[in-house]
Amino acid sequence: MKKIITAVLILVSMGASAQSEKYMKAMEDKVNGLDTVSSVSGWQNMANSFERIGEAEKNQWLPFYYAALSHVMSGYMMSNGQPGTANITQMDMLADKAEALITKAESLEKENSEVFCVKKMIATLKMTADPMNRWQTYGPKAGEALAKAKALDASNPRVYMLEGQDKFFTPEQFGGSKTEAKKLFEES
Amino acid sequence: MSKWIIILLALLAGIAASAQTEVSGRVYNSKKKPLAGVNISIKDSYDGATSDSSGRFSFTTTEKGNVVLQADQPGYKLYQQSFTLRDQPLTLDIVMKELIDEMNAVVITAGSFEASDRKRATVLNPIDIVTTASGNGDVTGALKTLPGAQQVGESEGLFVRGGTATETKTFIDGSLVNNFFYSSLPNVATRGRFSPFIFKGTVFSTGGYSALYGQALSSALILESIDLPDQSSANLGISVIGLSGGYQHLDKKKRYSFGGSYSYTDLRLAFSLIKQRQDYENVPIFHNLDLNFRIKTSKTGMIKYYGLFGTNSLKFYTPSIDTIGYLDGFSLKNRNMYHNLSYRESIGRWKLFTGLSYTNNHDQIESALYSDEKNIVLISPLEFKNYKLDNQGNYFNGKLVMERKFAGLNAVRFGGELNHLDDQSDYTSYNGEKFSREVKEDISALFTETDLYITNDIAAKLGGRFEHSKLLNKTNFAPRASLAYKINNESQAAFAYGQFYQNPEAQYFPTFNSLTFTKATHYILQYQRVNRLVTFRTEFFYKKYEDLIKTGLQQYRPVATGNAGFGDAKGIEVFWRDKKTIKSVDYWVSYSYLDTKRDYLNFPSAIQPSFAARHTASFVVKRFVTKWKTQFNAAYNYASGRPYYFIAPAGSGDFKFTDRGTTRDYHNVSVSFNYLPSIGKKDAKAFAVYVLSVSNVFGFNQVYNYQYSYNGARKEAIVPPSKIFVFVGAFISFGIDRSQDVINSNL
Predict the structure, then answer these.
(1) What is the helix (H) or strand (E) element at residue A68, kind and residue range?
(2) Which of A56, A111, B291, B383 is the most buried (most CB within 10 A)?
(3) Coil vs helix vs strand at B578
(4) DSSP-based three-state secondary structure for B562
(5) Is the Cβ pair B74, A94 closer than 8 Å?
(6) Which of A19, A55, A89 is the mutation pick for testing B, counting most B CBs within 10 A?
(7) Which band of pLDDT confidence, cut at 50, 70 and 90, is reported for residue B138?
(8) pTM score, two decimals?
(9) Is there a contact between B249 and B257 (Cβ–Cβ < 8 Å)?
């Protein structure tokens, strides 16, 4: 996770020149804060903060991107690593909210690998809410988004990280593998 | 230099501090419960906070003057309020209104079972249709393990809540399907013509169904065909009963797909291994070809076509019950085609759906009495056994539905339907005399239905349907209503009411007596509790039949005398599905109690009909063993004994019982295994599924019912064609990993 954050921070500073100092400072604060979040409510807090910044700025994609990411993280946290244990309705609401936010980000920043990484995570979140009934729809959707992310930027470490997570959590009989996951983690 | 900066910063901070306003308060929902996680903000500023678990929030803002404070939470209406900020702290209570949306709203479910992955509150997954052991891969097979349906084995179709099989109608993509099953055979239940794999959604309504559908007194089976496939693929199948192969092509940009498949079914091998009760001269052979295309016309528009062409033929002998030492011979040649074209599109809040279907069915039946050397003989008074019947049907169905959505899930639907039927039959009696009849019918219908969501917890569906029959020259109006109330997140109660009309069967036309629609009224009360792992549901129902057809004899043939028949059915049904208690085991239990009586056809009085058992139960269990890559399925079906009667003419048009009895209880245990060796092999080009299924594993003596000789002097049990049936097959697909289907149903 830390790697995600630091890497994106670089992105933030790259685009910095054209942006107001107030925006820069707020984003830096919040993005730095991501590292310390460890609860569902913490992630919700983050998501809301980013959304406020996004709504106020209107033409920055990063706040929407982070807001979506934070909602997904709060969803993951809710299911506590055990798919299918949390309330489906709640998970769906988070996923839908994240979806709406990432769509906003995408309309401002087209064809960005990071955006597709979050799209992949949203699909996975949807699936995690009710794996039994959603494997077929959201499995391929997640795969598609990830492939697009890879195509847009093959050097994006998060692509491999997400690939690794998939491998790690899929039972071996269904094509998962802890060792393959390790390789992917190392690559990222 | 740095000094100056510090001073400047301090100054700025000072100004900022003096200009800050504290905003705090609590957020509640309309039931005065605190809301957590709400995003509270000053519009167009960064300032804001998230409410905590007690609904409290507090933040400071540097904004001044007129501002808009808003509170945002998924599932709630956006709260916005203008304030003028002057350096005083602002404290406020916010009450947020719940939005009525699909995620939170109650689902109207009374009377229906749904197998789909789209909606919540479904009890089955699409894959359950094919992995239920006693289902034999037939669309209706798995549905027979649900409460409400009878375990009738001597003829095809779904007998629901005291209704006959003809009281259940099937709809594919909205259009009525004629000849859903293969043509009837004496004392053998035929299968459905359609592969369960072409459907993505199944709704099995055991009563109280929507005003969009009609002409079914008891039940509607509503099937939705798949849209674009996930990818291009080819498949091959080989089994003890035949061969099949197909190909589906998906456009690279996923705008359209087309494909087809062909299957050849030949029961010679299976019947030589498993002895049949019938002595086949021509073992059943089936040819089926299906073709489809699907075109995405826009983001929300889709045109779909599905066509099926099939022929089959068979001939068999059974020892004649009417005269000992002779054989009853029966032969059937069937040719059938079915076309279904549908189009759907949404424009803003409007949704349009239209569908056309056409069926052409041709049956040639020959029945005769044979000597035991298999020569046709004519014996008095059994001449009626020697006849030929040539039946040709053309059926056309067109339907248009418009839907207008309003805020908060409210919607109005309306539309119309046309059903054209042209049924021609030529009967040739033993002496070559020909009797021809042709029945032409046009049923036109107008319907409307509205979804009313008063809150997330209370919803109603109100509808009505007008139907006009040209043949009967009569019109009916059928009101329908259902209500649902959400008790809490997992449980809800529902009520459904409806009137249902159905035309008398084509066989009663033309008639000298004036006939009208047969009618049923349903009342259903339901309670259900559903979460992801456990489903409990119970229904009480009462169904009243009116204007059922009564028959009399005219030259030894039954003719309709009028609509003086009546009856009722009442009962309790329970369904329990559990994926939680036993690890990685999924099971369901269903039980139906049915108390029904009817007086129709030639019944001398109101009796429990011979197709209705008082108690019916099923137990279905599924387990996937990951290590062996095998899915194990088992099912047990039970039905208490069914009554049987011999009804004889009693002169002057009356009838009387001359014999009656009750069959033994019915038990059936079926098992099936699906072995998927290539599951999880990442680079496997082909994916194989091996299937072994055995019905009536323990070889129980199963008696469906009894049949009598023409004079009632002898009776014999109607039993399954073979005691045990074994199916072995391999299905291989190239390009698509079917393991997802299996993982899907077992995670």
Answers:
(1) helix A61-79
(2) A56
(3) strand
(4) strand
(5) yes
(6) A55
(7) confident
(8) 0.83
(9) yes
Domain ranges of chain A: 2-112
> What is the spatial distance between Cα A181 and Cα A161, in angstroms, rounded to a whole number?
9
Just give the CATH number of B112-746: 2.40.170.20
Specify the residue for token string 């905590």: B52
**Residue A64 DSSP class:** H
Reported as half-sphere exposure (CB side, CA atoms, 13 A), residue B286 has a value of: 21
Among residues 19-48 of chain A, which lie with CB inside 8 Å of chain B?
Answer: 22, 26, 41, 44-45, 47-48
Look at residue B353 and tell me whether its pLDDT is greater than 70.
yes
Range B667-673 average pLDDT:
95
Amino acid letter, B146: L
Contact A148, A117 (CB under 8 A): no
- Residues of chain B in contact with residue A104, where contact means CB-CB under 8 angstroms, are none
> B166: which 2 tokens?
């003809």
Which residue in the set B37, B579, B626 is minimally distant from A44, CB to CB? B37
User: Per the CB < 8 Å rule, is A52 touching B47?
Assistant: yes
pLDDT, position B736: 54
Alpha-carbon distance B306 to A72, whole Å? Answer: 40
CA dihedral (A80, A81, A87, A91) positive or negative: positive
Q: Which residues of chain A neighbour B579 with C-beta distances below 8 Å?
A: 132
Helix (H), strand (E), coil (C) string for B63-84: CCEEEEEEEECCCECCEEEEEE
- pLDDT tens-place string over residues B683-725: 566 778 888 999 999 999 999 999 999 999 999 999 999 989 8
pLDDT for the residue B281: 94
> Regarding beta strands B686-695 and B643-649, do their DSSP bridges make them parallel or antiparallel, or are they unpaired?
unpaired
Whether residue A56 and residue B45 make contact (CB cut-off 8 A), yes or no, is yes
Please check whether residue A166 touches B, CB under 8 A. no
Cβ–Cβ under 8 Å, residues B397 and B418? yes
The CA distance from B58 to B50, in Å, is 8
**pLDDT given at position B532:** 72
Whether the predicted pLDDT of A173 surpasses 70: no
Q: Look at residue A171 in the predicted model and tell me its pLDDT.
A: 57
Angle A56-B52-B101 from CA coordinates, rounded to 5°? 70
Q: Rg of the Cα trace of chain B?
A: 31
Burial of B49 (0-12, 13-18, 19+ CB in 10 A): buried
- For residue A83, what pLDDT is reported? 58
Nearest-CA residue of chain A relative to B105? A89
Beta pairing class for B56-61 and B21-29: antiparallel
Q: How far does the CA of residue A35 sit from the closest CA of chain B (Å)? A: 19
Cis peptide before A83 (omega within 30 of 0): no
Write down the residue that tokens 């429990």 correspond to.
B608
CA B340/CA B725 separation, integer angstroms: 34
Query: What is each CA distance from B553 to B354, B518, B598, B647, B672, in whole angstroms?
Result: 43, 20, 20, 12, 47
- B489/A93 Cβ within 8 A: no
Single-letter amino acid, residue B43: K
Residue type, A65: Y
Q: How far, in Å, are A136, B236, B747 from residue B688 at the CA level? A: 18, 9, 20
Burial (CB count within 10 angstroms: exposed 0-12, middle 13-18, buried 19+), residue B567: buried
The whole-angstrom distance between A102's CA and the closest CA on chain B is: 15
Chain B positions with Cβ closer than 8 Å to A: 36-37, 39, 41, 43-50, 52-53, 72, 74-75, 103-104, 117, 120, 125, 230, 489, 532, 579, 626-627, 629, 679-682, 739-741, 743-747
Which strand (E) or helix (H) includes residue B586?
Answer: strand B585-599
B20-96: which CATH topology? Immunoglobulin-like (2.60.40)
Reduce the DSSP state of residue B128 to 3 states and report it: helix
Cα of B61 vs its chain's centroid, Å = 58
Mean per-residue pLDDT over chain B, rounded: 89
